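lol ok so funny story. i was supposed to be doing the assay writeup but got distracted and ended up predicting the structure for this chain instead. priorities right. anyway since i did it might as well share w the group, maybe its usefull for someone
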Amino acid sequence: MKKLLFLFIIFSNLVHAQTPKLSFDTKFYDAENRWVLFNKKENQNTYGLGFIYLDPKAGYTFNYEGEVELKKNKFQRLPRLDTTNNIKIRLDVNTFDVYILSDELIKQFALPEKPDWLDAYSVNQDFIQNRVQKASYLNGAGASHKALPILQKAYEEDPHFPGLEFELGYAYNATGSFYKAVIVLNKAIENDPSNFWYYRELGFSLKHLNNLPEAEKIYRKAIELTSDKIQIAEMAINMAQSYYHAKDKVNFDAWKKVVMDNADPNSQFMAYIQYFEENWYKPN
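and the output, tada:
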């Protein structure tokens, strides 16, 4: 009986070891220029196969190449039903993590190491314009930690390159380096004092440094420079939140009015105002 049990355990472990395991734990921007699989959807048994690359004009993109099925503990690439259309999916902060194909699976699926068309997207990738654009896509994807070294190097080369100072200030803010953001954005404003985006980011930096008077001053300047109600409401809710935490009712009410004058009644901004008011006298 013990021998049978021992053999059963060995057999179970062997079957378990032979079953391919996929770990969908790689961010799409860490899979640039790689073959990947997207996880199967609920009630499906196939995985999306394709190649991730950076289109300088459109951002990170998944070039769909078909489906892969796990059958009898082995992956099989399924014939693509429609070969006339080239399917490209733009990737963003809401994109699910992916699995990077091993060299063995790339060979098994009869895939080239790199698609022939990839070279067209690699032209001039070292130009500062393309590097700043790549960092912008990384910022937008929530990967400011990866954007920072790209932007810092570009800043050393040409600090006032169009769009660079905003992206660098944004990346510093996103990674909690608020003092560094203030330095970059103040210099940016000296060079271009009518750029709304610099003031928006600088106000955010100052708010998080708890310099509320200066943050308020900068945000009000930003409001003068834009007619975008969503941007105004976002800045106003930032200030209202700060004064809520400071228990400063007078200034809270002033910024609440700015929110209400610009935000959609059903927006998240108004939901925050409602929360602040309902919890005003409750301990944090």
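Residues 33 and 53 are 5 Å apart (CA to CA). Confidence is low (pLDDT under 50) at residues 1-19.
back to the writeup now i swear
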